[in-house]
Design brief:
The protein is α+β, with helices and mostly antiparallel strands and about 650 residues long. Among the domains are: about 80 residues, Up-down Bundle (PWI domain), CATH 1.20.1390.10; about 90 residues, no CATH class; about 90 residues, no CATH class; about 140 residues, Alpha-Beta Plaits (2-Layer Sandwich). Strands 8-3-5-4-9 form a 5-stranded mixed beta sheet, with helices on both faces. Helix 3 packs across helix 4. The longest helix has about 30 residues. InterPro entries: Pre-mRNA_splic_Prp3_dom, Prp3, Prp3_C, PWI_dom. Keywords: Coiled coil, mRNA processing, mRNA splicing, Nucleus, Phosphoprotein. It comes from Coptotermes formosanus (Formosan subterranean termite).
Length: about 650
Amino acid sequence: MASSLSKKDIEEIKPYVDKTVQKFLGFSEPSLVTAALNCLTSGYDKRKTSNKLASLLDEKKATRLTERIFELAEELKSAQRASRKRHHESEPKQEDREVSKKARMKPNMEPEIPERCYGLFQIKEMMANAQKMIEERKRALNALRADETPPVRSFMFRNDDAVPIRPALYGLPPTTIPSLMQRGDTDKARKIAQLQAQIQSKLSTGMLNLPPIRPVVQDKPTPLILDDEGRTVDITGKEVQLTHVVPTLKANIRAKKREEFRQQLQERVVEDLSETHFFDSRIGMKSAVRNKRALRFHEPGKFQQLADRMRMKAQLEKLQNEISQIARRTGITSATKLALIAPKAEHREEEIPDVEWWDSVILTEESYIVENGKTLLKESAITNLVEHPIQLRPPTDPLKPVYMPVFLTKKERKKLRRQNRREAWKEEQEKIRLGLEPPPEPKAGFSLISNLMRVLGTEAVQDPTKIEAHVREQMAKRQKAHEEANAARRLTADQRREKKVRKLKEDTTLGVSVSVYRVKELSNASKKFRVETNAKQLFLTGCVVLFKDCNVVVVEGGTKQQKKYRRLMLNRIKWEEDTVKHSDGNESPNKCVLVWEGTVKQRSFGDMKFKVCPTEKLAREHFKKHSVEQYWDLAYSGAVLEATDDV
């Protein structure tokens, strides 16, 4: 489409383009709609439009969207052409307009027929059609008189502009049949009656293909008819009072519409709710009119009793508060809470043995039988020797003795280096003397150029340039060898990573160091991230249990790892920045406390994870599942005592 669209066309097609873009993309995109409308305004073809939209969309999507937009534009153009054609066909001819003008100029003649009535040519055509039907009827009557039964013919006049006239002329007037009866033509009268009945039945059932009556489309306003005095009259010449439209405020228009809407709501028929599935007949409907209620008198003293009850309730609450405060001061509350932390151990009643196991070795019988006030003992089993048990090696002690490394002084390190270099030089000289290695070339540098005569002898006098090139070559060779040695010693990226991990990780086969921390509030996402991330970076294991006013952090690892993590928890993280709000409304700064640290035989947890426990019982069960419930008892008891001290 090379031709551009006008502004009016663009305004008409804009909502359709917006809907097309929204349907194509799944969401509205005003920038894409604006770009497409600009392309249509500028008269771009499909290729240019696709290139323009490709800057905002994928190339394939831009091509498909361009096709749809151009289809919309073509439909708009075709609709406009069709509307112009219909408008052109519906316009009256020039002659009709001239006739209507002449009719208005004649005062004594009938007033002009408005455009919604039929034109002069249409009336002539209707009259011609009526005359044709009369001729057909006469032919039918003549055929009946000749004793011939004519076939029923279906008349169809395809004239869209003419008004279809119902062919009632087929039926004979009622005066015709008696005249025929008087003549004695009873058979002809009967046939005419049958023919008339058939025509009427076909007309009633729509068998005759009559053209439908088209409503006349009024494209133009009704022309104004004025009389000699300048008054507005209708077709019959009566005076017409025109309604004058007066501008009004929008507020008045809204009020009028609101009133009409209320009237429509009042006129609506109330639905029968009993037929709906959600109607409950057990619930009583409130009546529109309020029923009268009788007076109800209260018994004397009723409100005094209510007041006494309220006073007693207030005194009881005050007494309970005083008792709880005294219990907090004396420590009864904290002792009760501490007693509830660790559940009571179930004591099972065991059978009392007759003889203890350590006495069974020296007793003659398995009972303490006394004869003459003495117990029967095995005298041979009792000696004057003392048995010392064999001492077992502690599981945490290393198999090999560990010696503390000794750090030498600077003077001692220099001396040791000098001795090592001397031994290496002697070994190299011995290999040269035995012929195992070639002797090294004389070392020459720019510092020795002044001594070339002494080092190289006559060669320096014969060709000094050659000697200088030789010296530079040796220097480059030594530099290259030095760099290659450094590159060989340099660690790769994987080796450096392994070295860092090796320095962080520690051997925990002989024992695992454990630290338990208690934090008042651990809801800050930044601090939670630091607690978890640093534990993973230091290769520590453990868990974090989140409970109100008592958040427990347990970490397991080596001593060096624990030292770095302890510095993070107690110094680096600023816990005081956050405040903790208590149940009584007071606020206090947050803090972290090291509850316990020590060494255990093996790890109890895996990777660092967070566990939210809404109740104290669930928190203790989580630690009990890992067989370390004592960690929770220590941390929670400290939190209870701290809360008691604050009160």
